[in-house]
Predict the structure.
Amino acid sequence: MTEPLETGATIGILGGGQLGRMLSVAAARLGFKTCIYEPAGDCPASHVANYHFKAAYDDHDALRQFAQAVDVITYEFENIPTSASDLLEEIKPIHPNRRALATSQDRLTEKTFLNDLGLTTAPFADVTDAQSLDAAIADIGCPAILKTRTMGYDGKGQSRLSSPDDAARALDDMAGASAVLEGFVTFTHEVSVIAARNADGQVACYDPGENVHENGILSTTTVPAKLTPSQRTDAVLIAAKILNALDYVGVMGVELFVTRDGLIVNEIAPRVHNSGHWTQNGCLIDQFEQHIRAVAGWPLGDGVRYANVTMENLIGDDVDRLPQVAATDTAIHLYGKADAKPGRKMGHVNRITGHP
Ligand code: AMP
């Protein structure tokens, strides 16, 4: 059995966005202190965390001081430079581990890992230049999507090819970054499983949620998702298999395409996930508390769902609808961001639509 972190200990969180904010609140509920590491000043997590290291990810002195000030380290985003995580890991434990981070940071490594586990992904090929792109198109066919191997999120760093004639334009869109070409998957809908594992190997998965994206950004998540009982079981088994293979500690988001031939893994995120926000009002123990429990070496909650929920993201000026939304029976979660820029996630709401 892992020694549980004692109440009063400090959890370090890399990143100070809304996920760090909601993790900090959950940690506080369990009696922990939080210390965020985030270069930006007035960030969502800084309003609720106990301490804030405002420094760059290449500031090795600050990283060292941060690691010395906390008892365990976790993160709210996966694009942490390897040099930073290497340095931190020498001083304090980081969960999820280095392999989970490295696997999810690079689409090529991620897809190779998933295929090696026997899981289905979109067909893919490594693209480094015009010649390898031509070869990839000949192999995979069109339509296809060219994606940067690293640093992509919310549909950024992606370019669609309807025919081989789009190759030069798509390669330009990558701006010199190495990329993967992915075959276009004809899916009926998209779902995700939010799954957790602790150091003792206990795994708890939430019921899959059905996700709708607009302009590449998650718009809504609805539970229950439209899945047959066997698809639901498959989705959960896929997530559990990934967690076990990575000896994972923490919460992970596993995004899946639902096709007529079965489930295809789109990508994994080694952190709490936007499509898991419904758990805040649909479950006894939400994804944020679950992550903190895992990182702290505590037993996990079981993840049972007590309500049917629709989570809706408030993006950009959606937040102007707040007065109307507040007048309805809706749980409101705002991130404390000052400017409602287009495409910026300002908050989300959870509506209970029924009971299982
Ligand atoms: P990603 O950033 O890879 O999750 O992609 C963002 C969104 O683009 C996904 O949620 C899908 O709606 C769509 N998408 C990504 N990859 C594919 C694919 N290979 N085939 C079809 N749609 C895709």
